[in-house]
Amino acid sequence: MSGPVRVLSIAGTDPTGGAGLQADLKAIAAHDGYGMAVVTAVVAQNTHGVRSVHMPDVTVLRDQLDAVSDDVVVDAVKIGMLGTTAVVREVTDWLQAHRPPVVVVDPVMVATSGDRLLDADAEVAMTELFALADLVTPNRSELAVLAGLAGVAGVAGSETVDADAVVAALAVARRWDVLVLAKGGHAGGSTSDDVLVASDGAVRVFRGPRVPTRNTHGTGCSLSSAIATLAARHGDWELAVRGAKDWLTAALEGADALEVGSGNGPVDHGALVRRALPPVRSTDLWWTDAEELLAATIDTPFLRGMADGTLDPDVFAGYLAQDVHYLRAYERHLGAVGERSAGPAAAFWAAAAAGCAEEAASLHHRRLAGTRADDAVDPTCAGYLAHLAACAEADDVAVLAAAVLPCFRVYAWVGAQFGAAAVLPGAGELHPYADWVTAYGDPGFAASSAAATEHVEDLARGASPAVRGAMARAFRASVAWELAFFRMPTGDAVGAPGSPDGRGYRAAGTTTSAVGVLGLTDGSVAPGASRTSSTASADPSTEQRIQVKSG
């Protein structure tokens, strides 16, 4: 089969998730298997031990088993805690009728905490189950019990691969014609070596380091489930054991960082998978989350008109007048981020603030050339600035940094969409907005956008989940305000009735609700907008008239 192997776990539960069915399903998923589970016992346990065990009626157990086998092809089964003779016999009967290609039995008799999980009569009944198994995976204490059932003395010694362990495993293997993996986790020594013994006397030792941790809860459950999954995929027991052991070593190495429980905690089932995955970048998640807003942004009449050179010059001038209002406040916010940062980040934000001031005084200055200098702050511009001002009040500067980032990223992204067109297609005449289009796509600005993103990413990486959530919301709102800002010069509707040229252009400065500009028609309020006014409150200092003089 080309898809994930289908692995059934038959075992008891662990409400803390470290052992039993919960651990089995995690181990199966960690090896790209599709996990299924049949409950044999409801176990009230945690990292300190077992409190109680409830055994459902065996008819419920059989109903579960039949429900799976009547509908699903099972590639492998891992059998864990069974608990009673009746349960052992029910599972044995089902296995005789529905034996999958791979059967692994983890003879759960004693928990890591020392609690007994299988009664004496059930131990004897287990021998019939072993005859149907491919592999049995006892720890050293369990191997001693099994060796006794096979008529051989138990396991002694403390070496990692002692002779008694091999003798006992061989006796069990020959008695029931089954592979035996004698696990070394409970043995002494500086390594934790497992021994795979076949009924014909073949022996292979799988060596591994002994990880210094007390968090070993559920290691037996996890290892046996991983082996069952890998054996079903690879068709080879030695490859399966090798792969599962390496995975378990990584899971043990990551166990302490989980901080689950105050006793004998679980292993980290996702450790090895996590190492193989690329790191999750918050700024990438935010950008992907904003895809719909970005698609609407590049499709605004303002940007389409700028790209093809048909944008009304007066509409563009109105946009610039609002952009100057915005940049004056934006410069202060960039500076504030720099003042609350340190090292290279502080230098970057300070330089960005200086560049913002220069932008307002040069390209905008030349482009406006005295026109539209008296335009008041548009409600959309005011709403955006109110949003930034609110983010500036956050206790953590990371929130403000996330809020100012979209101005970098959206403009750089728009530039990448535009390209560097400076001549109208097929006309040979100079593109009327060539300097502006070129400024959007300037490589230097793209580099600044990338640098700003990295500095914000650093802040997100070191932030608490609560602060990261606030950063995500600040970023999302700023992207929405960027869209509103590009909609601002032309109004909401493209081709609105009564517009001079059918494009729906609107001169900046006329009153439009920020809610309407953002297109929120469900009664919600746009970021920074007031529910009681059609205009959003702005920082009072932004209400000044920007006098732009000709060159």
The DSSP helix count reads 22
Low-pLDDT parts are 156-161, 420-424, 493-551
Oligomer: single chain
Beta-strand portion reads: 5-15%
Note the overall shape. Answer: elongated
Largest sheet: 9 strands, mixed
- What fraction, in percent, of the residue positions are helical? 40-55%
- Tell me the span between the first and last alpha carbons: 73 Å
Computed structural class: alpha/beta
Topology:
Layout: E1 6-12, H1 20-30, E2 34-46, E3 49-54, H2 58-69, E4 76-79, H3 85-97, E5 102-105, H4 120-130, E6 135-136, H5 140-149, H6 163-176, E7 179-182, E8 194-197, E9 203-206, H7 219-234, H8 237-253, H9 255-258, H10 271-276, H11 282-289, H12 291-298, H13 301-308, H14 313-339, H15 343-361, H16 363-368, H17 379-392, H18 397-418, H19 434-440, H20 443-461, H21 465-487, H22 514-518
Parallel strand pairs: 1-2, 1-4, 4-5, 5-6, 6-7
Antiparallel strand pairs: 2-3, 7-8, 8-9
